[in-house]
Amino acid sequence: MSNQNAPNGFQYFGRQEGGSPTVGYTIRKVKADNATAIGFGDPVSQLNTGYLTLSTAGTLSIYGIFAGCEYLNTAIGNVRWSPNWPGGTQGSDATCYIVTDPQALFVVQSDNTAITFGDIGLNINPAIGTPAVTAAGGYSTSTVAQSTLQTTTTLAFRVVGLLSQYIPAGSVNGTDDASPYNRVIVAPNFWDRKSLEGL
Questions:
Q1: What does residue 135 show for φ and ψ, rounded to 5 degrees?
Q2: Averaged pLDDT for residues 124-145
Q3: What angle do CA 96, 38, 20 make, to 5 degrees?
Q4: Of 3, 74, 155, 159, whose CA is between 20 and 30 Å from 165?
Q5: Phi-psi bin for 104: left (phi > 0), alpha (psi -120 to 50), beta?
Q6: CB 27 within 8 A of CB 96
Q7: Comparing C-alpha atoms, which of 118, 125, 116, 126 is closest to residue 163?
Q8: pLDDT, tens digit, for every residue of 47-68?
């Protein structure tokens, strides 16, 4: 079964073995007038104001993975939980829930060319997409860029496996490793919590 191009960002897959278990989120803010939409599963980065925003492709600093927010929605007149930040100007700064665990694992789609078993252990950068609107689920459309695979230490993620190692190959979308858009398991590599350099 050939894979379909249907990215949904970086979805939590579990934790690397050997660390103490944790399931908490880090609470941070997105500014009320941040016009850039952020989807559920998108990488986010910290601005020099202390607020977070959607990461850009090739960024050297990723704070974590966006997992929803709460903000004052003036259209309905109350604070609402949302899987995504819709962008534009909202009634308040958003309280955001971010996965920052440096031992977390995520499943994510390759942007095109298949990532192979021989690529496990290489580092890779995200390819940032435009997230779906709230009515369509608010999911990220970000992927990982197969063309960035290399040993360079400053890339944001490390490929630690293929989804087909956990689910029978060809049984679900993303498990056909012979066709584009396959799904891989990645771990944080160059993240703020793993870097000693100040933001």
A1: -65, -20
A2: 94
A3: 50
A4: 155
A5: beta
A6: yes
A7: 116
A8: 999 999 999 987 778 999 999 9
Tell me, what DSSP letter sits at residue 150?
Answer: B
For residue 165, what pLDDT is reported? 95
Q: What is the DSSP letter of 158?
A: E
Helices (H), the chain: none
3-class secondary-structure state, position 193: helix
As beta bridge partners, residue 57 has none
pLDDT digits (tens, 9 = 90+) for 74-118: 888 899 899 999 998 899 999 999 999 988 999 999 999 999 999
In angstroms, the CA 188 to CA 192 distance is 10
Q: Which helix (H) or strand (E) holds 14?
A: strand 11-15
CA angle 97–58–197, rounded 5-degree value: 70
Q: Which amino acid is at 88?
A: G
Type of residue numbered 83 = P
**Are the C-beta atoms of 147 and 12 separated by less than 8 Å?**
no
Tell me how far apart the terminal alpha carbons of the chain are, to the nearest angstrom: 44
For residue 55, what pLDDT is reported? Answer: 95
